[in-house]
Amino acid sequence: MYSSDEKYEVVLKSATHINMSNWQITKTLDTMTMVNNKFVILSIINNLINEGVEKKDIFVTDKSFLISTNYKTYFENGNKFWGKQKDIVKMYSLGRLISMEPNEDIFRMNCLFEFYKKINSITNKNLKCRIRSIYLADSYDILFNESIEQAYEILLEGAKNQVCDVFERHISPDINKRDMIIKTLENQKDLCLERSRKKFKKMMTDSRKKFTYTYNRFDRPVVGVYHPDGHYMEIINADQMYKNGEESDTQIKLKKITKNSPVAIAMLVTGPMVAFLGYLLYREHNVNSQIDTEDLFDIPQNDEGAINNILGSDDGNLLDTDNVKEVDAQVKEMAHYNLNKLEIATNKRVVHLEMNMENEITMETK
């Protein structure tokens, strides 16, 4: 009952004395989608930790993914980025990486991408061009075997060569302007290195708190795994980003919105969200259903128990089973925060919650 591999029709009906405006309907749908996606990510993270992936290799970026971008060009060849010429700029564009625990490799990557951002802004301002991705890829290749300074130097030399190439194509090149740009680029190396070391060392020291804060703050976080054996990254929620999640198996699907009084929002839900909604249905609402008394006693009596059951079982089952894995404390903390968002969206003073397994009896609330 109420497990991740089941699909339910979930209906939210506005309370009879409170009608929902258009913006409230939109906000409710956005919140349900956000909470659903975040529970999916937390389930994946917990599974990875239980499979032996080190927490220091799990990261969130400091940029939320955009609903105005379908990310087709990002993930048309899969969800792994290897740091080569064809995908290094995609890695950079995702944002700074914040790991669950301190990670020296991720610290180095943040430092390199910060330098690229800085000198890229200089060439863009003066020459209206971006530094070629091959130079960033070359510096990334040596980043983990050599010093950060050497990686900076390779990127800097590539940028200077590109500036020279641009001016060599001019019929009457402005040598003074060329030298000024090159000098400006050179001056950024030591300054950016010092600032980046200080900034990202602090971020690395506070990584646990920073990861949780960033994950909770963003409605659409980008989460991935860094693979130190090949120095590549894998985005674990790429399906939520690709084509705006249209092809994701765990994405909420809107069935219909009825604007008669009361307003009714019908959705198809699967994944961990099913069990969390089932938990709130029995905890917060009076339910008319034919449920076995034995199963009723197995329903968790508090949020902690629900999170342990749902995120700790292979099938995301709400009921207490013997097949339960440990739920990481940090994952649990973020799950509590996410569950609170779901509680607000399904507040029984504002909406009535109904759940109906496809082709089965409706679970109605009073």
Automatic annotation (TrEMBL):
Entry's transmembrane regions: 263-282
Superkingdom of this protein's organism: Bacteria
Entry keyword set: Membrane, Transmembrane, Transmembrane helix
Name of the protein described by the UniProt record: Uncharacterized protein
